[in-house]
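Shapes recur. Our protein:

. . .
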Amino acid sequence: MFYLERYEEWVRELDDKDPLKKELLDIKNDDKDIEDRFYKDLSFGTAGLRGKVGAGTNRMNLYTVGKATQGIADYIVGYGKEAMEKGVVIAHDPRHFSREFSELAAGIFAANGIKAYTFPALRPTPELAYMVRRLGTKAGINITASHNPKEYNGYKAYWEDGCQVSSGVADGMTEKINAVDIWKGIKRSDYEEGVKSGKIVVLDEKYDREYLDKIEAMAIHEGDELDLSIPLVYTPLNGCGSIPFRQMLKDRGFNNWKIVPEQENPDPDFTTVGYPNPEDPKAFRLSEEYGRKFGAELLMATDPDADRFAIEIRDDNGNYIPLNGNQTGYLLVNYVLEGHKDAGTLPAKGAMVKSIVTSDLSTIMAKAYGVEMFETLTGFKNICGKIPYLHDNGYTYLFGYEESVGYAACEDIRDKDGISAGMLVAEAAAYYRKQGKTLWDVLQDIYAKYGYFAEDEPNIILEGIEGAERIGRMMKWFRDNIPSSVAGAKVDKVIDYINGYEDIPPQNAIRIFLDNGSSFSIRPSGTEPKIKFYFYSNSDSREAALALNAKIKEEILALINSVK
């Protein structure tokens, strides 16, 4: 079997002192584990690499990271001397081996004659995205697995536009990566020697300041317009957000906030969090404890690489209510639109961008202000990738987001950014508090004005080769068996993005619209072993919308789960 041949090759080629060899020898009698590690190469795409850390071709380790980096180096060399001199900027998160992988990548680029920029310590993903355009590099690399469990690490690749690589660039990189001999084809140089020689440049703190200045320039209200004594709690979930988020709050004058101490500093095991995803309300357990002691009105969290941002707000009864990504998006869209209108700065051709699987309530809101909402595929390479088109067609970019707690407020940062989203939400909370309102009040006002919507984004996790195959069967079965009605409502329209739709490129996603105004979408995740669902309904009350949405979800998940 092919995977056994690969396993034997790795055991043969690895040095006896390499801990990866011992790891492989320890599983020599576990055929299933061997198959999972070697049945494929860790796939490189527009989301880069992501996988469990360990030995094998389907794992994140010094060899698979080295192979990917050498392939990208070969791709950049193909653009010539100017591209090589522009170089690559590299960042990393707090995960196991993130620093080692980032130094390995810098050494490989340097050995290939490509200038490399690194940071002295961990930095947020959005800062890395900003630095690509700020430094004028040809590419950027961030070693991070975002919000995945502690067993994972990843490798995000950015191109010169500051966005994660497009499919065309990813395809070109993949071709070069596949041609690299993992044992003999990687040029390496020592990281410290590269720094001493000037081939690797360690960036100083002035660039951190520039990044924060860009974010703080997005302020809509300031000074006496805000109640800066609003009690806040923030957690970086042991990740990159801790230092910049705290500095942002201080810079903006907030004077009554707490950080969760157990989650303030980097911890690659996420000991007090478990699954460090701020989308999951369980990640707010400690924040809620401190919030109740402190009387906090708003709880905020960023994920380990600080690109995602989520909140919990207090309702009328004083309970902390976790908001999903759509709901936080409603608050931000409303705040940006309302703020610009009140200030007289709403542009004649304003534009916002959301993903195809994000609620349409924000589109209704934008239209009410004369702002056009554009749709793209999921991912901020697509959302922020729309910015050049908007500029070319006379639009002013105001905001972009998607339901998975990702928000892009600053067009100079071409990725989702938890620090800027956090600033705007904290600012909004302080602004409305000055007016005697809470964010909960504002959310209820939005529903009353634009429609009572319900949102639900469940997923089914299916790991390993069997899981990937079952997800494939689920998508195929649903395409072949799209129901004519769901929960008593007729299917009014079907959009299958597998071959693209209008100006939207192909993606393995299906979107269904019902004649009662509800809709739902299905797609496999591009970065995790799961199939994702997005259910949206609206009715004459929030309760009625939630009940309708629950019926639709129940029916569709029952159909999907029947596929074995």
User: Anything to note?
Assistant: DSSP finds 20 helices and 22 strands in the chain. Residues 453-561 form a domain with the TATA-Binding Protein fold (CATH 3.30.310.50). The first helix runs from residue 2 to 13.
